[in-house]
Design goal:
- The chain is an alpha/beta fold and 418 residues long.
- It folds into 3 domains: 125 residues, NAD(P)-binding Rossmann-like Domain (Rossmann fold, 3-Layer(aba) Sandwich), CATH 3.40.50; 221 residues, Dihydrodipicolinate Reductase, domain 2; 43 residues, no CATH class.
- It is 33% helix and 24% strand.
- The chain is built from 14 helices and 16 strands.
- The longest helix has 20 residues.
- The two termini are 20 Å apart.
- Bound molecules: nicotinamide-adenine-dinucleotide.
- The site of nicotinamide-adenine-dinucleotide has 23 residues, from helix 1.
Length: 418
């Protein structure tokens, strides 16, 4: 789906970071400056919360000026690249402004949260001729790349169906219910915020896009399901009894980025996972029918004892299966094993070692692809705005189906320019 693109441009990119929470200050801040200093110069650090931006600037290790207003930042420093790491529902406005100012944009996933916002971004990209990259880092994980190769080689013939089940553990899953992600207006729900990764992987693996989605979603553990509730863990009278009690004071990074700056906007990192106004599902399934007739069974669970996924491609000549464990209490191997099973034949066990760094090395490969010169892209791992839109629209269709109780076609959402 994605054409090969080679990164060219100046030796050191003039980068503005917008959104300085954990992702911005970490992956796209401190780590970027540590590993890609020869390619990156920060020219602005921008966040609506000045205290967080200032704390992040120190943590990142730059003297770049701090801004709280994107317009002012764009006009003052004229960055070459704007990296967007703000809350999901704010991405579109920042992306469009940056494109209009002539910048190249690297945006965190999900690209945005509604079909209307998707269309706005795609129209701005076409109008300005400036590119948007969406950071689908899971495409760059070693196991994903190996599976993509096998599918390209038609190792199991023509793929007819896919089983894809993703599990978030009680730590990672709960984190989404402590913060803005728990409100559909901010995250688009986990069908958008989280599943955008998974729908993007499907679109990329299958080199097609879904025509139609049928979905169910329920809230069974967080929100109103809690046996009690408070405002936040730090002040909660139920701290001793709550399985989800989270003592943020033990984490200096989170304390620095969130606790002190919360004085400015009240945004706390340890809000109660049982808040009654949480309006997103925590247990979801979807069925997708792709344009190339592949059918997919997908699920996302958010309070599991395991973190990882189960993925299988069923084809006319066999089956590719992988069970990936990312983090759990019991011991798991330091590698993934892809089972390549051929109809009427044997099984080939393909061992894929885990690389270091975020997403088993995927985060580093992604940053290389976006910032190092001369990178080739034989597997089409680099993702643009159209890929960002298509995976977001899968999630929007799932939410629409969940609410209406009927299958929803992506075409009816109006998320693509006419
Ligand atoms: N690819 C991945 O694996 C991955 C992992 C984590 C987060 N993310 C994405 O990164 C982004 C940031 O996540 P996070 O966990 O750091 O969130 P966060 O809430 O910790 O940080 C977001 C920051 O954006 C700021 N902000 C909100 N509106 C803004 C605006 N209009 N202009 C400027 N700043 C604004 C907030 O003040 C906050 O500091 C999200 O889009 C998230 O989906 C991606």
């Amino acid at each position: 789906m994605q054409a090969t693109r080679h990164e060219e441009g100046p030796e050191r990119h003039r980068v503005a970071l917008v959104g300085t929470g954990h992702r911005g200050a970490g992956m796209w801040g401190k780590e970027l400056l540590q590993g890609w200093r020869d390619r990156t110069e920060f020219v602005a650090i921008c966040d609506v919360n000045e205290m967080r931006a200032t704390a992040a600037r120190t943590a990142i290790g730059t003297n770049a000026p701090v801004y709280t207003d994107v317009d002012e930042m764009l006009a003052s420093v004229k960055p070459e690249i704007v990296i967007v790491c703000s809350r999901d529902d704010t991405h579109d406005e920042i992306i469009v402004k940056a494109l209009e100012a002539g910048c190249r944009v690297i945006t965190e996933k999900p690209m945005t949260t509604t079909p209307e916002k998707c269309r706005r971004i795609l129209e701005a990209e076409a109008r300005t001729g400036r590119p948007v990259d969406v950071t689908f880092n899971y495409r760059f994980a070693p196991t994903a790349a190996r599976i993509k190769q096998l599918l390209r080689e038609e190792a199991v013939g023509t793929v007819t169906s896919v089983d894809f089940h993703w599990y978030l553990d009680t730590q990672h899953g709960a984190d989404y219910f402590r913060r803005w992600h728990a409100k559909e207006a901010h995250s688009g729900s986990l069908f958008v915020h989280k599943a955008t990764h998974h729908f993007d992987l499907l679109n990329w693996y299958l080199e097609s896009v879904p025509r139609e989605v049928s979905a169910f979603g329920t809230q069974r553990n967080y929100g109103r399901n809690g046996p009690f509730r408070g405002e936040r863990c730090q002040t909660c009278s139920h701290a001793r009894d709550c399985d989800f009690y989270f003592d943020m004071s033990k984490d200096p990074w989170l304390t620095m980025l969130y606790e002190d700056p919360s004085a400015e906007d009240g945004y706390v990192r340890d809000a109660c996972v049982y808040r009654e106004d949480i309006d997103i599902a925590d247990t979801m399934t979807a069925m997708l029918r792709f344009e190339n007739e592949v059918i997919v069974s997908y699920s996302l669970n958010t309070f599991m004892p395991i973190e990882g996924y189960h993925l299988a491609f069923n084809g006319t000549k066999g089956r590719i299966e992988v069970r990936q464990y990312e983090r759990q209490a019991f011991e798991t191997p330091d590698h993934d094993e892809i089972l390549l099973m051929r109809n009427f034949g044997g099984v080939e066990r393909i061992r894929v070692p885990h690389a270091g760094g975020g997403h088993f090395g995927g985060d580093d490969r992604l940053r290389d692809m976006l910032l190092r010169p001369g990178m080739t892209d034989p597997l089409g791992q680099r993702a643009g705005a159209l890929a960002g839109a298509m995976s977001m629209l899968c999630g929007a269709a799932a939410v629409a189906s969940m609410k209406s109780g009927r299958p929803v076609r992506l075409a009816e959402l109006g998320g693509l320019p006419a």
